[in-house]
Amino acid sequence: MSPRAALPLALLLAGCSTIETGPTLQEIAAPPDQPPPDAMPVLQSGQVPPSAELAALNYEKLLALPQEPAARAETMRRLADLQLELDERRGGSLADSQARQRRAVALYTAVLAEFPGDPANDRVLYQLARAHQNLGEPAQAEEALQRLIREYPQSGAIDDAYFRRAELLFKLGHFDDAALAYRRVLDLGPATPFFAPAQYKYGWAQYRQSNYEAALEVFLSILGRELPPGELADVQAALDGAGAGKQDLVRDALRVVSLSLTQLGGGDAARKYFAAHGEPPHAALLHAHLGEHLVEKRRYTDAARAYGAFIDGHPRHALAPAFQMRAIEALTRGGFVDQVVEEKERYAERFAPDADYWGGRAAAAEVLAQLRAHQEDLARHYQARGQQARAHDDAAARQEFRSAAHWYGRLLGQFPQDPKAPELRFLRAEALLDGGDTLAAVAEYRRVVADHADSDKAPEAAYAALLATQRYSTEVPEAQRAEAQRASVAAALQLAERFPRHDQALAALTRAAEDLYRLRDWDAAVAAAARVLDHQPPAAPGLRRTALGVTADAHYSRKRFDRAEAAYLELLALMPEPSEERAPVAERAAESIYKQAETARDAGDPRAAAEAFLRIGARVPGSRIRAAADYDAGAMLIAAQDWDRAAAVLEAFRATHATSGLLPEVDKKLAVVYQNAGRPAQAAAVLDRITARETETADVRLEAAWLEVSLLEQARDPKAWAAYEAYVKRYPQPLDRAMEARRKLADRAAEGKDAARRQHWLRETIAADAAAGAARTPRSRQLAAEATLEFARAAAHRAGRLPLKLPLAPSVKAKKQAVERAIAQLTAASEYHVAAVTTAATYELGLLYQQFGRSVLDSERPRRLSALEREQYDLLLEEQAFPFEEKAIEWHETNLRRAGEGVAGEWIGRSLQALAQLVPGKYGKREQTTEVYDALR
User: Fold this and answer.
1) Is residue 75 within 8 Å of residue 63, measured between CB atoms?
2) Tens of pLDDT along 410-441?
């Protein structure tokens, strides 16, 4: 069998599973009945025997025998081929597989070395490449294929070699070299079975090198070959029309085209590319897929621009309205409200019945339906925006309402018989009214009544016309305004009196109450509103709400805050939840209560003021001023020294107003309240929050941190000591405070009998004082001196406990070294010049020398000494001990002399007691001791 005959037509592109690298040809180009292999095919050198294992053993034996060169070459090739066949048949462990592959590599390599001119070496090189590939050695496999191409350009496997080498280079990420190799396959022409997969991967190699235009050229060529004829804009229809087994290839080619265009700039890039290279017949499909791709990537504005690019290039195309709708839908999915509005306006302008697009033709029904829907959407959108903007920007709101009126007008002009015409015209009147054109609004209301008398909107429009007329009375010049308003009130009262059964009578009366309020005739406004509220049957809820609002506002204006509160709360009970109208009413109710609380506070009744402040949270919990009221309630309870109640109110504040800017002040008040209430642990918890709050000043956080640890200690809280440690790390300054914290930690360790921790904090104390330099204080020096003294005493104690044993030389050496270390540490403690520490260290020095002399006298004696020798040895030891005793006396007398310098204390007295033992003749008697002590002073 020839090498070429053994090659499959469909090949695997390894390592390309995502859109960025491309799917495999297994997914794109393989015929359904010929799944491609996972590796290079085995080129069998002949019929495989039934027992390949036995054949391999026989070939191994044969290879060991002398043979003619041609026979030896064939034996080596067959044995190597059997190794590959056995690997595919038997599988086995990875080690076994690799061993067989290595054996094949060795044999093929040997054939090439021993028989370099063999005409079958092209097949050997191919098989060698396959073995290297199976071993995961793509570089060696590529090298073998490159040699095959170089040395056997006329081989029947040359196109396969080109393609295999390109695949390996692609897998290695050498996309530039891979592209050249794929190009070699393409240069062989469509006759090669590798042409289609090579073209596909050539395009991907260009894409992976960011050669997007080159990739476009390749994949557009594929699409031109595989897409069905005719113009398409639906991707699924295009895929359904592709040839059998080509859907995945077409789908992926479309995807890479979209990816490339996206990299080049999206829709604008497509327009420029087609202008430069010619537009393909399936341009609409490409724009449609590009848009869908961008939508999938959530790049909604880019998708809209891609659709718009098609329209810009084909403004009169039959698909232009559909592409415009796609742009709108993409932006809608992305939530880009403003851009959706712009696109809908563009749709309305481009495809209106009188637009140039139609060229005198009748507009399509589907487009008109979309047009009508878009115009209503635009009108309602601008009207809603106006309502939203009205609370904070009246000028902007008016402009929005005018835009709404414009679109309502266009819709009614183009669709005068629309079933929703009464509602739309009424909405236009409202938009005109809100936009500031009151007279035009009145005319539009009246037209609703005149043109749609049977409509449900007619009564509402009639009443709205009355209200608009009343509103116009408020728009006249200032000099005429009061008179015009009173005339409007009179007309409304007359309507209510003359037509009490008119369905708008109570509305007119309600409006009159509002106008009276605007005229600052508050009592008359309350009276008019009362007529609405007392009416039987009860007035509509909306009218009752308005009347209650007038009543509440009038009482508030008259500073009758208790009656205003009652009216506002009654009004809130009538208002639906949720409702945008509730917020201002709730605020005025809260303000009415707040004013009452202020009155009680100013009258010197903090408890009554606190109750009033808290009533805001109970009755209008969502009020904007509730946080301030709750805070003020806490302040009033503090003023009343009601600590427990104040704590409860302030803690409730923290839970209810978790984002309030008053929280820092609340915590400071809580800390004071808990301290006064005798609750140090809770006060410490509050101070911990203050310390952690980065918005506090550094001084506040420092003081809070110190007070926190102090309160934790006071509360006997086990966390106090961890808090002291954290304090020392975070606040090394002020030095004295940090030193006190270290002292407390050391003392705590001593209480817990934790010697290691105590020594740690004593060392920290010494180090902190040493590092302070010029910032050292008397207190830091004292604490460091005391810590140093403690270490020195421990060293002296260890030295004193060392006995002198035979042989004396090593024990004396050890004893001397320990004493010298203790002397050094005691000297270091003295050098702090802290009187109490210096006298204690001096005493310890005397005691150390005294103990050293005693240890000499108590040292172990040599055995077998005669009585005379023992006596002489003892005298010798006394002579050796005497200098240490003299040194001890010297140090104790040094301490006594400090009494003459005005220094007193326990350790001078102890030195005096030691001298009484060491020099009893001089210091032993009480009266003599006193005289010596006085003399030294």
Assistant:
1) yes
2) 999 999 889 999 999 999 999 999 999 988 99
Spatial distance between the Cα atoms of 227 and 460, rounded to a whole number of angstroms: 60
Do residues 172 and 276 share a domain? no
Give the residue carrying structure tokens 């005289």: 931
Distances (CA, A) of 398 to 389, 438, 461, 936: 9, 12, 21, 102
How far apart (Å, rounded) are the C-alpha atoms in residues 481 and 487? 10
Contacts of 895 (CB under 8 A, 6+ apart): 839, 842, 843, 846, 907, 908, 911
**How far apart, in Å, do the first and last CA atoms of the chain sit?**
124
Say how many C-beta atoms besides its own lie within 10 A of residue 778's C-beta. Answer: 9
Query: Which pLDDT tens digit goes with each residue over 17-36?
Result: 222 344 444 444 433 333 34
Q: How far apart are CA 463 and CA 446, in angstroms?
A: 10
CATH number of the domain that residue 181 is part of: 1.25.40.10
Q: 814-817, long-range: CB within 8 Å, 24+ apart, which pairs?
A: 815/852, 815/855
The domain boundary, picked from 341, 361, 383, lies at 341
Global confidence as pTM: 0.46
User: What tokens does 19 get?
Assistant: 């859109």
Domain-embedded: residue 608: no
One domain for residues 183 and 235: no
pLDDT at 10: 27
Q: Rounded CA gap, 602 and 606, in Å?
A: 9
Residue 103 lies in a domain: yes
Please count the other Cβ atoms lying within 10 Å of the Cβ belonging to residue 320. 21
Rg (CA), the chain: 51
Contact 880, 856 (CB under 8 A): yes
DSSP at 282: T
Alpha-carbon torsion angle 580, 585, 587, 591, nearest 10: 170
The one-character DSSP state at 390 is T
pLDDT at 157 over 80: no
Q: Are residues 76 and 140 in the same domain?
A: yes
The per-residue pLDDT for range 786-797, each reduced to its tens digit, is: 888 878 888 888
Domains in the chain: how many in total?
3
Q: What is the DSSP string of 679-695?
A: -HHHHHHHHHHHHH-TT
User: How many CA atoms are closer than 13 Å to the CA of 715, on its beta-carbon side?
Assistant: 23
**Phi, psi angles (nearest 5°) of residue 345:** -65, -40
**Domain edge (last residue) among 324, 341, 358:** 341
Q: Is residue 353 one of the residues assigned to a domain?
A: no
Q: How far apart are CA 689 and CA 704, in angstroms?
A: 9
Whether residue 221 is found in the same domain as residue 177: no
| Domain identity same for 225 and 150 | no
Q: Are 794 and 932 found together in one domain?
A: yes
How far apart (Å, rounded) are the C-alpha atoms in residues 346 and 126? Answer: 63
Kindly report, residue by residue over 275-309, the tens digit of the pLDDT. 888 888 888 888 888 888 888 889 889 888 888 88
298, 262: one domain: yes
- Determine the length of the chain: 937
User: Do residues 735 and 775 touch, judged by C-beta distance below 8 A?
Assistant: yes
CB atoms within 10 A of CB 903: 16
On whether both 246 and 172 belong to a single domain, the answer is: no
Distance CA 608, CA 540 (A): 38
Which residue segment(s) compose the domain that 858 sits in? 777-936
CA–CA gap between residue 836 and residue 830 (Å, rounded): 9
How confident is the model over 255-275, as pLDDT tens digits? 888 898 888 888 888 888 888
In a 10 Å sphere around its CB, with 0-12 CB exposed, 13-18 middle and 19+ buried, how is residue 639 labelled?
A: middle
Q: What pLDDT score does 7 carry?
A: 29
How far apart, in Å, are the Cα atoms of 430 and each of 449, 521, 546? 14, 29, 19
Is residue 346 within 8 Å of 324, Cβ to Cβ?
yes
Structural domain contains residue 741: no
